[in-house]
Amino acid sequence: MRALLLRDLVLAVRAGGGFGLGLAFFLIVTVLVPFGVGPETGLLTRIAPGILWIGALLACLLSLDRILALDWEDGSLDLLATAPLPLEAIVSVKALAHWITTGLPLVLAAPVLGVLLSLPGPGYLWVFVSLALGTPALSVIGTFGAALTVGLKRGGLLMSLLVLPLYVPTLIFGAEVARRGTEGLSVQSPLLMLAGISFGVIAALPFASAAVLRVNLR
Amino acid sequence: MSIWEYANPVKFIRTADRVLPWLSGAAVICLVTGLIWGFFFTPDDFRQGSTVKIIYLHVPAALMAINAWLMMLVASLIWIVRRHHVSALAARAAAPIGATMTVIALATGAIWGQPMWGTWWAWDPRLTSFLILFLFYLGYMALWEAIENDDTAADLTAILCLVGSVFAILSRYAVNFWNQGLHQGASVMRAGALAGDTEERVSNVFAIPLFVSIAGFVLLFVALVFLRTQTEIRARRARALLARERVA
Amino acid sequence: MDLVASDLTVARGGVPVLEGVGFTLSPGRALVLRGPNGSGKTTLLRTVAGLQPPVAGEIIGAGERIAYAAHADGLKAMLSVVENLSFWAAVFGTQGIDDALSAFNLEELAGRAAGTLSAGQKRRLGLARLMVTGRPVWVLDEPTVSLDAASVALFAEAVRAHLGQGGAALMATHIDLGLAEAEILDVTGFRAKPRARAEDEAFL
């Protein structure tokens, strides 16, 4: 399992798309928002946590099809399926690799981009915490979407259509933690819900992803 | 005789042919009765005026929007466990009906909400949940369309339906949490108990035509699912016959 | 332990292509599948490898004993030859890739990125992967495609060595590898009678 994780990480670094692309996209979204809504600081302050969450979510979505599609095309997915690793472990590792290459950089970059949106003081902590807790769920749910559409020629758009509704609860609770934290309100209940969703999907969804992948490999 | 006999496509088509006229007839009678009664023979609400009468479309459509997904969930489970093709096709057949019901519920809600709340749309939890439900329907139907192999499509959509159900419930709670909203409580269901003497209870004058209308929508839904499942089975049969011709 | 397939029916895209296939593959033996294109050799191999379930019949002694090599080599263009092999060795929990490198004459290419190899060199790397799996039953689908005569000889030697160590090989190929241990199974005789897709039967 470690070998698979390492391989995916090395590939992400060497292929160049992994760390860079998602981050650049996140940056661009964050920069575009003030152009769209106007430069007024008060407004930006208010919407900053939500924008950072939406930006991170879209940047995450952008790279989902790389999780499985490349391995599908060059036949390694077939070979991995005959390897001693259960498919459940394979999809979990793939989701983890995706999180490390896409989610983690986004989490680290979000406070920096917060400066651009005049995020108030306590916001930095809570945006960071909520993204750190929520992005793993985005990767795991995204892997399920990638597994559903892996055999399709132009699965990208369909995958977005399938994955985005599944992102709703994570987004709501995550953004709520960030917003409440920024405004100095109690974050306990949304934080617990967000943690619950993250741990829940990490524990359960790989079984669905593996089942779907088995159907697609058939 | 077991209920699984109807999992045989031929048997299902024959049975559906027999019951469809009765189902459709009953649906039409209930709908016409319920709607005419509701629209023309109930008093106006003292606060909401005549606009309240859209309730006879809005509430049944909203109920069926959710029940259609539940039906798809049950059908998907049956497909996964027992692998009856009719079950998978029935789930497929129900999806567009459910999506349409969701649209009707959203549209009538907007029409009702405009004079009441002064806005066509508000990010009220219930409205939002229905919008999300609509997105789930869209994704489900798109996945069915995208996959060529029938059994693969049935498997994948069934799993999507299961996973989607869990996330739909999560979304419902999340949305409730996110915005407390201005939608009135589900006074109808409390009327359904007909026991409470609370002020909010919908009085019998409104409730009885509403129940007739709901019954009409249920019958309509069942009839449409039968009809569409029949169509799906026949389309599948046509493809199977063509495929056989090609190999023979 | 023998690999035994009995009364096997396999389907491609739901259409049965072969039926009633049966064979026994003992350690130290090789079985070569023959048959025209599209006769179902690949489907049979995928089924034996466990990638798809058989429509009917059963396979005993497969599962975790199979090392499968398909048309696609599953190589990562951005990884070097050594990295590609080491990855598979780690996945299968085996040590050492040197034997595999030397058996397929890949030492000189060891540091090259797999993406820069020629088709034949890639194939050799793909086949070298079999040796690092440490699994006894090789299931090979057209292993000699794009190999030159010298490479085919290398491959035949590797298979012979594998059989000599008590391994077995099931392969679809048209080239005579000169293996004394090889039996030939012509799948033409098992072709499924033209009929509907299994999943369609309920609808006819």
Any descriptors?
heterotrimer, B: 248 residues, mainly alpha, Four Helix Bundle (Hemerythrin (Met), subunit A), globular, C: 204 residues, alpha/beta, Rossmann fold, 5-stranded parallel beta sheet, 3-stranded antiparallel beta sheet, 8 strands, 27% helix
Describe the structure.
The complex is a heterotrimer of chains A (218), B (248) and C (204). In chain A, 84% of the residues lie in helices and 0% in strands. Chain A is mostly helical. Chain A has one domain (2-217). The model of chain A has no long low-confidence stretch (mean pLDDT 89). Chain B is mainly alpha-helical and 248 residues long. Chain B has helices at residues 9-40, 55-82, 85-117, 125-146, 150-178, 187-193, 204-247. Mean pLDDT of chain B is 84; it is low at 189-200. Chain C is of the alpha/beta class and 204 residues long. Chain C has five helices and eight strands; from the N terminus they run βββαββαααβαββ. Chain C has helices spanning 41-48, 81-91, 98-103, 119-133, 149-164; strands at 3-12, 15-25, 30-34, 56-60, 66-69, 137-141, 168-172, 182-186. Chain C: It holds the Pfam family ABC_tran. Chain C: It comes from Pseudoponticoccus marisrubri. Chain C: One of its GO terms (molecular function) is ATP binding.
Low-pLDDT stretches of chain B are 189-200
Listing every helix as H and every strand as E from the N terminus to the C terminus, the arrangement of chain B reads HHHHHHH
Which outline of chain B best applies?
globular
State the distance separating the first and last CA atoms of chain C.
42 Å
CATH architecture of chain B: Up-down Bundle
Assign the CATH topology of chain B. Four Helix Bundle (Hemerythrin (Met), subunit A)
The strand order across the widest sheet of chain C is: 5-6-7-3-8
Largest beta-sheet characterization of chain C: 5 strands, parallel
Computed CA radius of gyration of chain C, to the nearest angstrom: 17 Å
Transmembrane segments (chain B): 20-42, 54-81, 93-113, 125-144, 156-175, 206-227
Family (chain B): Belongs to the CcmC/CycZ/HelC family.
Protein name (chain B): Heme exporter protein C
Subcellular location (chain B): Cell inner membrane; Membrane
